[in-house]
From TrEMBL, chains A, B, C, D:
InterPro entries: AsnC-type_HTH_dom (IPR000485), GntR_C (IPR011711), TF_FadR/GntR_C (IPR008920), Tscrpt_reg_HTH_GntR (IPR000524), WH-like_DNA-bd_sf (IPR036388), WH_DNA-bd_sf (IPR036390). The keyword Metal-binding does not apply. SMART domains: FCD, HTH_GNTR. The keyword DNA-binding applies. GO terms for molecular function: DNA-binding transcription factor activity; sequence-specific DNA binding. This is GntR family transcriptional regulator. Pfam families: FCD (PF07729), GntR (PF00392). PROSITE patterns: HTH_GNTR (PS50949). It comes from Noviherbaspirillum cavernae. Residues 11-78 form the HTH gntR-type domain. It comes from the Bacteria. SUPFAM superfamilies: GntR ligand-binding domain-like, Winged helix' DNA-binding domain.
Amino acid sequence: MATPVSITRDSSQTDRAILGIRDLVLRGEFKGGERLAEVELAERIGVSRTPIRAALQKLEEEGLLELAQPTGYIVRRFTETDLDDAIEVRGTIEALAARLAAERGTSRVVLGQMRECLAEIDAVLAEKMVDLEHLNRYAAANARFHQLMLEAAGSEIIERSLKRVVSLPFASPSAFVLAQSKIPDAFDLLKIAQAQHHDIVDAIGARAGARAEALVKEHARIARKNLELALLHADALDYVVGGSLIRRYADDGR
Amino acid sequence: MATPVSITRDSSQTDRAILGIRDLVLRGEFKGGERLAEVELAERIGVSRTPIRAALQKLEEEGLLELAQPTGYIVRRFTETDLDDAIEVRGTIEALAARLAAERGTSRVVLGQMRECLAEIDAVLAEKMVDLEHLNRYAAANARFHQLMLEAAGSEIIERSLKRVVSLPFASPSAFVLAQSKIPDAFDLLKIAQAQHHDIVDAIGARAGARAEALVKEHARIARKNLELALLHADALDYVVGGSLIRRYADDGR
Amino acid sequence: MATPVSITRDSSQTDRAILGIRDLVLRGEFKGGERLAEVELAERIGVSRTPIRAALQKLEEEGLLELAQPTGYIVRRFTETDLDDAIEVRGTIEALAARLAAERGTSRVVLGQMRECLAEIDAVLAEKMVDLEHLNRYAAANARFHQLMLEAAGSEIIERSLKRVVSLPFASPSAFVLAQSKIPDAFDLLKIAQAQHHDIVDAIGARAGARAEALVKEHARIARKNLELALLHADALDYVVGGSLIRRYADDGR
Amino acid sequence: MATPVSITRDSSQTDRAILGIRDLVLRGEFKGGERLAEVELAERIGVSRTPIRAALQKLEEEGLLELAQPTGYIVRRFTETDLDDAIEVRGTIEALAARLAAERGTSRVVLGQMRECLAEIDAVLAEKMVDLEHLNRYAAANARFHQLMLEAAGSEIIERSLKRVVSLPFASPSAFVLAQSKIPDAFDLLKIAQAQHHDIVDAIGARAGARAEALVKEHARIARKNLELALLHADALDYVVGGSLIRRYADDGR
C-alpha cells in the first residue's frame, strides 16, 4: 500500500531544496561554472543533505546544473546559442499547440478569454510607458495568453512537454519582458509582439493552422531579439531571471 | 564539499527502482489504471522504499504514472490521441533538429555516417523479409540514424529536450518497428520510411532546411500509421513497448 | 525568316491597346460587370479593332476581364475572397523565392542593396508622416526591395511565374500603400511591415530558408489587412489601383 | 458593340497557330536554341503569318520561346535547375490549394471523388506492371485527382494561377509518368506517390492544412526524381513532353 505521509514529507523537503537551489542560482548567488557544495546548500536552505542530493540530480536533469569531474555539480553556463535554441524549442512546441488548437477547433469561450488578455495588453500599451509597473502588467496578461493558447490544443502530452522544456530559465514566454525597461525601442517590440498576438487569435479562430504555427514560431523569436538587446545593455540583463548564467563573450576574452 | 560516494549509491538505488518499475509497467505486469503499492514494488525490485518513492515521483513527472486520489500513484492509461500527440511532439523536435542541421551545415563525415545507416537498412530491405530478425536489424540502424540526425544539429539543448519527450514509451522513433512483424503490408511502410530517410539526408546535405523539417515531421507520422494498424491486430500490440497501457476503445465499450 | 518590322508594329499596337484598356478599367471608367464595346475602345485608344480584339483576349487571360454570354467581354468584379487569394498566391511565390535565396545563398552585395532599401524606408518612417509624398517614397523603396528579393533567388522561372500572378491589380506588393494615407493607424502597419523586411533580410543572410519563407508569407498578409481597412474607409479605396472593381458587399445588398 | 464572329475566327486561327507551334517544339521538330521562321511555320501549320506572329508572342510569354537578337524567336533551352524550379512553383501553388481545401473544409462528395481516383490507381498498381498501358491509366486518374484537389480549394484565382504556371511543359503533375516505362525502380516511385495521395486526402479530410501543404510540396518533388532518372536513361526522355528541350550537360561539354 502507498504511504502518503512520508512521501509528502520527503517530497516537500526535496521540493524545498529544488526551489531553494534554483532560486540561489538564478539570483546569481552562484556564478556559471561555480561548484556547489552540499553542506553549504543544506545550511542555507535549511534541509538535510538527502533532499539536497535529490534536488541537485533533478536540477542537472533540468539542465541548470552539470556534472563536475570527478564528482559533484557545477552551475551551468549558457552561450547565446544555447539560449537561442531553448527559445526555438519553446516556440516550436507552442507553435504545435497553436496549430492543433486551430485544426481541432477552439471554442468561442476560449477565444474570448484570449481576446480579453489582449484587451488588457492593449490598455497597457495605450499608456505608452515601459516602466516596471507597466511591464509587470504586460507580463501577467502575456503569461495568461500563452497558457490559454496551450490549453486550447487540449493536449496534456503537449502541455507536459512544454513544461519540461520551459523548466530552463530564459525559455519562458515572459523571460525578457522586464528587461525591456532598460532597452531602448522596447516599446516598438512590445507593439509588434502584441500585433502577433492578435494575428494568432485570428488564425486560430479561422482554423488556419499553418498560419498559426508560423506566427507563434516567429513570435518566440522576439525573445531572441530581446536577448540580443539585453546583452548590449548590461543593466537589462539584471532583469532577466538567470541573467548571471549567460556566458558573455567578453568574459572569455573572445 | 560534494560527497560523491553517497550520491552515487543513492542515485544508483533510485535508478534501479526507476528502471525496475518502468520495466514492470511497460511489460504489462501492471495494467493501465492499476494502483501501485510501494511495499510490493520494493520487494519485487529489491530496493528499500525510499528509492521506490523517488522513482514513483520521477515516473509521474515522465508521464508514465499519475497521482491517485487521495494518495499514491496509478499506472497511466493512454488514449490514441495521447499517442498521436506524443508522436507529433517527438516529430516536431526531431524536425527542428533536422532543419538546424541543414541550415547550420552538416559535415560530409556525418552525412556519410547517416548514409552508412541507410545502406544497412537498404541491405535489410533487399532481403524482403519482415521477421523479427530483420526488424531488429532495421530498428538498430534506424535508431543510429535518428541519433546522428539529432547530433547533426549540434545542440545540447535540443538533444536534452528530445530525450525528455521521448521518455514516454511509444514516442521513440523505433517504438513500432517490431510490431510490424504482425502487420500485413508492413514491408511497404518500411520502404516508404526508408525513402524518407534518403530524402532527409539529401535535404540536409543540400541545406534545404524547410524540406528537411517537413520530411521529418511526416516521417514521424509513419509511427501513427503503425499504431493504427497495431490497434487492429491485437498480437501486434504485444510487440510495442508499453502496448498494454494503450486504452483500447473496445475496453471502454465505445 | 523572321520579319521584325511587322512584328514590332503589330505588337506595339496590341501593347498600346492592352495598356489603354487596362488603364481605363483600373481607373474606374468601366465598372465591374460592364460590357466593353470594341468600337468605343478603338476610338478612345486610337488603334484599329484588330489589336483591340487581341488585347481583350489577353486581358481575359490575365483575369481582368471575363467572357460574356453570348459573346464579348465584361469587366470582372472581384470579391474580397478573390483579393485574399490573389494576395496569398503572390505571397506564396515570393516566399518560395525568399526561401531559395536563403538556401542557395545570397551574395553580400545583394544583401547590401536590400539593406539600402530598408535604410531608405527607415528614413521615411523616422519622419512619422503618412501623407502621399512619404507613402510614395515608401512604395518606391518597397518595390525595389521586393524586386531584389525575387532576383536573389536567381530563378527566371520563378520571376516569370510571379509576374503572371501579379498581372492582376491588387496583388502587387505595393498595391495598398497609397491607400494608407486615408487609413487610421496606417503608420503602425508600416512599421510592422518594415520590421518584417528587416527580419527577412536577416533570415536570408543567415540561410534560414524556412524562416524567410514564413516571414514573407505573413508579410503579404499585411496587404489583406490594408484591404480590410480600405473597405471600411471608402475614400481609401480611391487610392487602390483598380479599387472600383472590388465588389462591395453593400453594393449587392448583402 | 462586340463583334463575335471575327473574334472567333481570329482567335481560332491564333489558337491553331499556338497549338501547332507548341506541338512542333515539344515533339522535338525544333531543337532548343533553334531560330523559328515565320514563313516555314505558316506553311507547316496552314495559317497566315498574322496568327503565327501572335502565337509566337504568346509562346514567348509562356516561356517556351525566347526573343532572339536582333529580332525573331528561338526555342528556349531548359536547364535542370529551370525544371526543378518549374516543378517547385507548381508544387507550391498546388500545396496552397490543398491547404485551403483543408482549412475551408472540403465536402464528403469531393473527398469521395478523390478517393475514387485513388481506388483506380490502387487497381492499376495491384497489377504490378509499368508498361505504357498501365502508366496511361495511372496518368489519367492522377490528372483527375490533381484537378479535384485544385477545385477543392474553391478559388478561381488559384486555379488560374496554376494554369499559367503549368503552361510550361515539364511542370504538369503527370509530365514524367510515361517516362517511367523506361526507368528501373519506377514502380517503387509510383507506390510512394500513391501513398502520398492517400495521405493528402486524409489530411484534407481531417482539416490538417499544414500537413496537406507539406505533403503536396513533397509530392511534386517526385517529378524531380523522375527527371533525374530520365536524364540518366536517354530513352526515358523520349516519353517526356518537350524532353528534347532539356539542355543536357553533356551537350555543352560540361
